[in-house]
Design brief:
Shape: globular
CATH class of the largest domain: Alpha Beta
Distance between the termini: 39 Å
Number of domains: 2
CATH architecture of the largest domain: Alpha-Beta Barrel
Strand content: 15-25%
Radius of gyration: 24 Å
Length: 527
């Protein structure tokens, strides 16, 4: 069976189910949204407007969607799918499981099911099969950086559709950066009036010269609500990232009084790490951040709010009288302790609102608030193991040489992406519950448009999606490559500009000598 991610248990049986215009979807009230989704999914390519019936019985040629508490062993996202000649049954302990059962059923149909207009005279048949399935990890994420390059609503909606097809359930949305602020905050309009626009874009990592082509764009709050709702209908949680205290130059260009120096700034046109960051000594900075977060919390129901926390140089804090006064008054050791104070103050505010702070592993310092979630990308492996084993701290794995989709296909070929194992050596079965899962970041310094985004992400993201869902002992790269051939046909019909397999899995010699190819950055920064 050519299913991606590969299911836990699968048994092919004799016969086929044939979808016709008379096929009925039988469901209950709780699953009505799943039924509507399935009808829309099947209707685009078949032209059939399938009848949905809630309650009662249908004798034959029916697709049944229902909740079954008896399947609790499969967990919140697990499902059981049975295809017989007269009936398709998808049942699960929760609605998310039913949704994922629909995604598997979708892949049992011919790839033509992905067409967006009716395919006339086609036989829509599904092989009879019995599948029981559940995910390996609870957090199966994709991170898209729009601070560097704004992509827009249509690209985001397609991104969510593709994530759903691959049973991914977390979109980590990086919305603020040195190079752009991408979300409307009504209390602080300059964040988008000033911070969403830059004069041009550097063509190199360290170069100060830019191309002179203005770049701009942001999401208004109505657009954010629509995208968040669209994600929820696909069982995807959106975790927003609002960078602090570093990578904040777009905000400081909008409100320079939030910096240590108060001097004028411009939204960055080149990439890297900038010395000017939010001042940790001014209470007005925390007032600003809390009021920004208030609007973020109203837009995003996610229990987690990502604040970045990485690559925050301490040069300005060392020279700032307000920051130095804060260090003395709070009895802190140094500027690194000041960042822990900064993070904990934001964490306490989010806790008061029923949410949890999340950040890159630079926030993992002594004294960090207990409930803070850490996303590991590089360095500090022993500290990471201590956080998992001793502190039982929640962790998401994004080891940069194995998961960063902005890297070239030479540096991170398809085979390396597929073979990534997110459970670190030294973590045993008693500790693994602290590991929420894994996430695959795409930083967008060199991703100016949808075509480049697709090329960088696919098919590596498909390989990674299988790692997030499929049991380790069920994975097989050779078999994955075979199944991928058919899956790429689905991506083509969905308009995805994926990297050809000759690029995604280049020869070994090219992988070695091609590490320094451009325009992919090889710095490995968490950004």
């Amino acid at each position: 069976m050519d299913i991606i991610p590969f299911p836990e248990k699968i048994k092919l049986q004799a016969g086929e189910f044939r979808l016709t215009p008379e096929t009925c979807i039988l469901t209950n009230t709780a699953n009505r949204w799943n039924a509507d989704y399935l009808r829309g999914l099947l209707g685009s390519s078949t032209g059939f407007l399938l009848r949905i019936q809630t309650g009662g019985l249908v004798a034959k040629n029916v697709i049944r969607l229902h909740l079954d508490p008896g399947l609790a062993r499969l967990g919140r996202e697990g499902y059981r799918l049975e295809v017989r000649p007269d009936v398709i049954i998808i049942k699960a302990p929760g609605t998310a499981g039913v949704f994922y059962g629909i995604q598997t059923l979708r892949q049992l149909f011919p790839v033509e099911i992905e067409e967006r207009c009716p395919v006339l005279g086609f036989e829509w048949q599904v092989p009879c099969v019995l599948i029981e399935d559940k995910p390996r990890f609870a957090w199966r994420g994709f991170m898209l950086d729009e601070g560097r390059h704004f992509q827009g609503k249509e690209t985001m909606l397609l991104t969510l559709d593709l994530m759903a097809l691959q049973k991914m359930n977390v979109l980590h949305w990086h919305l603020t950066e040195d190079q752009g602020w991408r979300i409307e905050i009504k209390k602080y309009p300059k964040l988008t009036e000033v911070g969403s626009r830059r004069a041009g874009t550097s063509k190199t990592i360290l170069g100060k010269q830019h191309d002179g082509i203005p770049h701009s764009g942001f999401y208004n709050q109505d657009e954010i609500r629509k995208i968040v709702a669209y994600a929820a209908e696909r069982c995807i949680m959106i975790v927003p990232e609002i960078e602090m205290p570093g990578h904040s130059l777009a905000a400081l260009a909008s409100y320079p009084e939030l910096s240590c120096t108060g001097r004028p700034f411009e939204v960055a046109t080149h990439f890297g790490i900038f010395p000017d960051i939010f001042c940790a000594g001014k209470d007005t900075v925390f007032t600003f951040l809390q009021e920004v977060l208030d609007e973020i919390l109203e837009l995003f129901p996610s229990p987690y709010i990502h604040i970045g926390g990485d690559e925050a140089p301490k040069k300005r804090w060392k020279e700032c009288p307000d920051c130095q006064r804060r260090i003395r008054e709070e009895g802190l050791k140094n500027e690194h302790s000041l960042q822990v104070y900064f993070t904990n103050r934001i964490a306490a505010y989010l806790d008061s609102k029923g949410r949890h702070v999340m950040g890159w592993n630079e926030i993992l310092q002594d004294g960090l608030a207990k409930g803070a979630v850490v996303q590991f990308w590089a360095r500090g492996r022993e500290r990471l193991l201590a956080a998992i084993r001793t502190e039982k701290r929640a962790v998401v794995m994004s080891t940069y040489l194995d998961t960063y989709l902005d890297h070239s296909h030479n540096l991170m070929p398809l085979s390396r992406a597929y073979r990534y194992e997110p459970v670190p050596a030294g973590v045993d079965v008693n500790d693994v519950n602290s590991l929420l899962g894994l996430e695959f970041p795409l930083w967008s310094e060199w991703v100016p448009n949808r075509a480049r985004l697709d090329y960088q992400a696919y098919p590596r993201l498909t390989a990674m999606a299988e790692t997030g869902w499929t049991l380790k002992d069920k994975k097989d790269f050779k078999d994955f490559r075979r199944r991928l051939e058919k899956f790429l046909g689905r991506l083509s019909r969905l308009g995805v500009h994926y990297a050809p397999l000759k690029d995604a899995e280049p020869p070994k010699m090219k992988q070695w000598f091609g590490i320094f190819t451009v325009p992919q950055p090889q710095t490995g920064t968490a950004e």
